[in-house]
Amino acid sequence: MTESFTDNDQPPGDPAEALRMIEAERAATLRKIYVDDRWWFWPWGFAWLIGFGLLFLRYGPDGRVFVDMPQWVPVVALNVLLIGAGVISGLTGARAYGQLVGESARRGAYYGWAWGIAFTTMSVILVRVTDAIPEDLRTMVWSAVMAGLTGALHMAGGAVWLHRQLFLLGAWISAVNVAGVLAGPGWQSLFMCVAAGGGMIVFGWVSSRWHRRAAAR
Questions:
Q1: Tens of pLDDT along 61-86?
Q2: In terms of residue numbers, what domain contains 194?
Q3: ∠ CA 122-126-131 to the nearest 5 degrees?
């Protein structure tokens, strides 16, 4: 029996045309799952800018108090902002990877769970050992550990998806965190507020523009 083909059934006879079709399908898939980079980085950037800024104003270098506010305000504000940033990141990841199946979907799910498990575990540990930490170092230790964990997870994400910008951002956060710890209490909050929080905001803006220009080519 002789099969009949319509024009749409015919495979492309030109290898170049086949490659163009594959590239078109790939581009369409990327557009479907692409999320503006600002949604990845701005929630964390503003959370750190505001949260660590409040910490600096209340717990400044050498015990200075630039703005007299209840001691619990900056700590609670930072935690609430970080939780909010985590929720936004989770929703962003669900939008980006919820339409995928297979290995990419599993990577996204595992990476999301890694954030939640890591931060929960570290919080429990810090609560357990806080009383053993000198009072003047407690705020710095808490913020430094969480910032270090964030930097490490960003670098892990960059390694998993071969995302150079995400890896570099994690490395930058880690370097700023170390510099702040070496500078001491108060200064660490300022470093994280300006360099890490502000750096995330700038990075999100630049990365978003870069992707839009690349997509327009």
A1: 988 999 999 988 998 898 888 888 87
A2: 45-216
A3: 175
